[in-house]
Structure formats: structure tokens, C-alpha cells
Amino acid sequence: MISKAILGRKLGMVQFFSDIGEALPVTVVEAGPCLVVQKKTVDNDGYSALKVGYEDIKERRLNQPDQGEFKKNQLKFKRYLREFKLQDIDKYNIGDEIKVDIFQQGEKVDVIGISKGKGFAGGIKRWNFKRGPMAHGSKYHRGSGSGGAAGQSKVFKGRKSPGHLGAEKVTVQNLEVVKVDPDRNLLLIKGSVPGPKKSLLFIKNTVKSGK
């Protein structure tokens, strides 16, 4: 169950030196602040959740239903709206901000993002297929191979073949928070996370303790 979560933008990767002088590869994330826009309850909506907004945006760039949601409670307009199904939503009120200081150094988190899109890719790049002999006589180098059983006259679902690579939802679990900078809303996370620079990330407490 999620006890804490926040939205952020990936700024890139840097080298960070720990207190003992160890060089660590870390991802810098500009996390929050996230604005609580709506509280969903079991009585009204059938489930409990917080709807939060992230990143300021001009009013004219939102459609009218979204504009009305912010104007209803006299809130700042936000670019992204997401729902957090947290354990305890009673401690939050509409208009409150969720800031990066909800996390602490040494804590483990899960990071969810959209991986880099790499366009159309062949079977070798997309599925790690082995290529054929590269001698001229083989006449088979990077082909996809057989499409399946000949007698069926069709290709079965699940067949690994060339196609669109990347641009899909990816979760990296059990990453360590190396440093929290509340003044600049920065979160330094050990290791790499999905997506290109400036992409949107969803960060929450980990569901696996790790060993």
C-alpha cells in the first residue's frame, strides 16, 4: 500500500560523492510541490484517493472542465493531474502541498516513468535475437525467421517480431534516496530511472524491502 508519493521531472544523471568518498551514479529529480486538488472518499466515489496537480500552467492552456476544477477551490492551475491512492488521506486538505521532504535520505522508493521511444526496431535490437552467419553464402543475416506453424496459416499471438520499441510504462523498484534538498525541491536517487530528460516521473515508497 502506498503511504507517500510525489510527481517530479527527471533532470538528468550526475556523479555524487558520499560521506565516505564513494562515487555514486545518481538521477536528479525535481520533485513537487504537488497541490491537493480533490479528495475522493468511499462514500462519494467508491474509493479513497487524492487528486493532485503538478507544475504551473496558464489558464488558457487547460480545457474548461479542468479550469472549473481549479476555480472551484480558487487554486493555481496545474499542467498534470494524477490520483494518489494513499493509506491515510485524512491528514491532507484541499489546497495543501505535498513536498519533497516527505522522503528521507536512505529511504527506498519505486520510480515509474515512460521509457525512451526508439521507433521501429528489428528483432535483434528489440528482442535480442541471434543473427545468422554473416558469410555471403548464408543469405540470412538479420531476418526474423519463421513466423510459426505452417499448417495453421497464421501467426499466433505473442510472437516476437520487429515493431515499435520503447515508449512504454516502466517501473524501477527499490532505489535508494541518496539526498533530499527541500530548498530546491530536488531528490537524488541512486541509479537510473526510466525516460528522457524532463520526462514526468511518479515516485512512491517501495513495495519491496530488498535484501
Feature tags:
single chain; 211 residues; mainly beta; Elongation Factor Tu (Ef-tu), domain 3; 2 domains; six-stranded antiparallel beta barrel; four-stranded antiparallel beta sheet; 3 helices; 9% helix; 38% strand
Q: Radius of gyration from the CA trace?
A: 23 Å
Q: Into how many domains do the coordinates divide?
A: 2
Please identify the top-level CATH class of the largest domain.
Mainly Beta
Ends distance: 20 Å
Strand content: 35-45%
Tell me the series of helices and strands, N- to C-terminal. Answer: EEEHEHEEEEHEEEE
- Major sheet: arrangement of strands: 1-2-11-10-7-12
Helix content: under 10%
Count of DSSP strands? 12
CATH architecture classification name of the largest domain: Beta Barrel
- Coarse structural class: mainly beta
Shape: extended
CATH topology of the largest domain: Elongation Factor Tu (Ef-tu), domain 3
The CATH homologous superfamily of the largest domain corresponds to Translation factors
The number of helical segments is 3
Uncertain stretches of 5 or more adjacent residues: none
